[in-house]
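Annex B. Sample input.
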Amino acid sequence: MSKKVKGVIARFSRERSNLIPILQKVQAVAGYLSPEAITEISRFLDITENDIYSVASFYAQFRFTRPGEHSVKVCLGTACHVRGGELILDSLERELNIKTGQVTGDYKFGLERVACVGCCALAPVVVIDQQDVFGKMTQTRVKEMLAQYKKGRGRKAK
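Annex B, continued. Sample output.
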């Protein structure tokens, strides 16, 4: 486990009531809750790993798999769905060679579907890294959009 994560844990007292704040801080530093982090937290708080997984899995905010460097979210709200959101998602799955909820083998991209991003006038919408909004997305633009991130350039929201 990284020194950063150990440093985060060490800032807390060993009270069980610190479990959720510790999980939140560890995830903020590491991006997810690794098995090694869970083991270290278990030792630190003197509670079982099963108890930690039980608590953490109850909350949607915690993730147990390493996220991709770039988070790609496809809106499938009503407007996006009607305007081809599923086709955009299919194109992204093919282009990235992963399914929704997975991360590419090089951990460059993670793909998710979301219920609504609140940009209905721009439907269908893809959001990358919670800041770059790609509206009126088409299947042919998917490859072009991803190329910006594969090259490490990204873009600002439009």
